[in-house]
């Protein structure tokens, strides 16, 4: 299990109970201290992969200060970040634009410098943030060649995916070779019990030697007890029932469903609090069997329905 900093690095995010978790404690120093506490708890529990991005507010900065303050050895941790979105919310919960996407070479060059200033040699994997066919990044030879230079210097290059086009983008990425070698060695994608459609292709990527990192395992909180939407009530009741049978929480159950996939290398916990993190870690103790997987498969939505609901989540 890894820890993702999307909800920890900035005052606003789309996870359902984000504002309740942070409850107005938005001063940068307070948020930094809180992020350090969650990172301490994660490290103590054995988590050794941390995911951040240029667009997660001060996520990279908070992670960098934690790594230096705690004098974490580079051999003891793997760090991934992403470039391609610029944070534009100005430390506000509500903003007209929270982040702006641009996968061009000048943005890469600018964000590379910023990531280096925050994370330096700790950076192990640099992902293109939410690559899509529409963003055109997989056709931009100038960007791909620049990424290959860093790959040749020992950095792992990855891409993260989002939306109904996850599969088409990953198929294309698997074919990108520069100087005769695959460019991408890591993919970060959404797979959860509501949106499992990418599973077969992620298995292919894993078998081809890519690291597979799963994000949004709890569907941005839609699979948690925080989701009291009436339309979700039946699915929630089924999750709760199954969790009770397996003597766990519905959140740990949903994470266990991800951990049970043989092609998963890392599942990200998106915990905003230490309590959520402790609960997420219970996923390792869930005696998850094929029968549970078959039952939970009944909860899946069509990708179009899933991504439609995700796009309705409000920044809070
Ligand atoms: N395109 C991309 O590359 C991309 C996109 C999204 C995420 N990511 C990465 O993936 C990481 C994880 O994504 P995510 O945050 O969307 O993950 P998630 O697992 O789908 O959602 C995490 C959220 O679920 C809620 N939660 C977790 N445990 C809970 C518990 N025990 N009880 C109640 N609520 C609980 C919390 O939200 P609330 O309490 O706030 O409701 C938490 O912020 C991110 O941090 C980021 O690093 C990458």
Structure description:
The chain is an alpha/beta fold. The protein has helices spanning 18-22, 28-44, 59-69, 105-119, 141-152, 166-174, 199-207, 233-245, 250-259, 274-281, 290-296, 303-310; strands at residues 2-4, 49-51, 78-83, 85-87, 99-101, 123-128, 156-160, 177-178, 181-182, 186-190, 211-215, 266-269. An 8-stranded parallel β-barrel has the order 1-2-3-6-7-10-11-12, surrounded by 6 helices. A two-stranded antiparallel ribbon has the order 4-5. Strands 8-9 form a two-stranded antiparallel sheet. Helix 7 links the parallel strand 10 and strand 11 (211-215). The two termini are 26 Å apart. The mean pLDDT is 98. The structure holds NADP nicotinamide-adenine-dinucleotide phosphate. Residues 4-7, 15-18, 21, 51, 82, 129-130, 160, 162, 188, 215-221, 224-226, 249, 251, 268, 270-272, 276, 279-280 line the site of NADP nicotinamide-adenine-dinucleotide phosphate (NAP).
The largest pleated sheet is described as:
8 strands, parallel, barrel
CATH architecture grouping: Alpha-Beta Barrel
Bound molecule kinds, no repeats: NADP nicotinamide-adenine-dinucleotide phosphate
Q: Specify the helix fraction band.
A: 25-40%
Share of residues in strands: 5-15%
Q: Can you write the helix and strand succession as a string?
A: EHHEHEEEHEHEHEEEHEHHEHHH
Strand pairing plus helix content: what structural class?
alpha/beta
Shape from CA axes? globular
Count of the separate structural domains = 1
- Arithmetic mean of pLDDT: 98
How many runs of DSSP E, i.e. beta strands? 12
CATH superfamily: NADP-dependent oxidoreductase domain
| Rg computed from alpha carbons, rounded to a whole number of angstroms | 19 Å
